Amino acid sequence: MLREIFIHDGRLTCFDAGKGPVLLLVHGFPLDHRMWSSQLAALAGECRVIAPDLRGFGRTAPALAIHDELTMEHQADDLAELITALAPNEPVTFCGLSMGGYIAWQFWKKHRAKLARLILCDTKAAADSAEAAKGRHDTAGRVLKEGTGFLVESMMPKLLAEETRKNRPEIVAAMKEMMSAASPDGVAAALKGMAARPDMSNWLPQIDVPTLVICGAEDVITPAKEMRPMAEKIPGAKYVEIAAAGHMSPLEKPDEVNAAIRAFMK
Ligand code: MLT
Predict the structure, then answer these.
(1) Where are the domains of the chain?
(2) If you measure from the C-alpha of residue 191 to the centroid of ligand 1, how many angstroms do you get, rounded to a whole number?
């Protein structure tokens, strides 16, 4: 069920269904809660699944102000407000994909009392290089002038494994639809926010909640060769690699990803 939840400066739209431990599913860039379509109903049998559209994205875009730069910390603060409204007494399992993972680090740093576990899908702890950050600013400027069409075309080939691109046209279409629906303002502000995100690599040994790290074996954006060593630095973290999946492992291989999440939540 989709709900609108009031936070201090507007409304956040989120999917909310099921009973049990709270599983907060936080989408990547430039997507919305629908990227978790294969987790929402499947996991609501055993968890309370809450999947927001972040500030600047999906149905939340028109309902919350967007500043020029939307930091990962700001998004984490929004989610803390959401959780306070929906499940005030229960620390949550925060599951973030890619940009959702960048937000997860900030949620852990700033809102630790609200956190029971972390699931980090296809993400990284390192900050952008100076060159990557400049590239994001250039892209943000172009998005504001031209819209998101060129970004959708340039990102698509990197997001999905070859098998998905060839044999799963419905996933390719769903990704294009979500990316095209993202608001240029939200996309530009998130690009600048990601460019400004801090390097979390030195914090990894201090992560003090049970952690599951999931990586698509064919992810070229946050590859296994970076994610495996990242997981090894988090005390006690479990690392799961999903065969024949790219950056969008929960959408590409839902049965495998859902099984890993279920086993971890038990
Ligand atoms: C994402 O999937 O959220 C993006 O690839 C993150 C990024 O651009 O660093």
Answers:
(1) 2-265
(2) 9
